[in-house]
Write a sequence for this structure.
């Protein structure tokens, strides 16, 4: 009986004090974009770009987070000069992931359906 109570107390403590996963931030997305710049600006290989994209996609679990990530990528696309948007459009295939929106300075993030399928 004591062991069951002790396990329940430990479980409650873990749930209460476990760090909560935070939603992806624009800062994280901007770092991801920076990792992809050599490739996207025709200055180098793809490097760690695909790994960063895969990690960011895992963090964007809800439609709201995916819409937010789309907006952040759009802002970066409008700010950073020299991006080859043909290469940006091909990142899904090159990295073997499904990016749920078009990487473009003119993308309308409100028009994309961000389902979790």
């Amino acid at each position: 009986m004591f062991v069951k109570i002790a396990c329940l107390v430990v479980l409650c403590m873990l749930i209460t004090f476990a760090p909560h996963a935070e939603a992806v931030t624009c800062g994280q997305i901007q770092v991801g974009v920076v990792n992809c710049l050599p490739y996207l600006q025709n200055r180098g290989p793809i490097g760690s770009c695909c790994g960063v994209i895969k990690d960011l996609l895992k963090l964007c679990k809800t439609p709201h987070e995916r819409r937010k990530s789309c907006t952040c990528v759009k802002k970066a696309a409008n700010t950073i000069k020299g991006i080859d948007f043909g290469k940006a459009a091909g990142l899904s295939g090159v990295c073997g992931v499904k990016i749920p929106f078009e990487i473009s300075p003119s993308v309308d993030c409100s028009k994309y359906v961000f389902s979790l399928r």
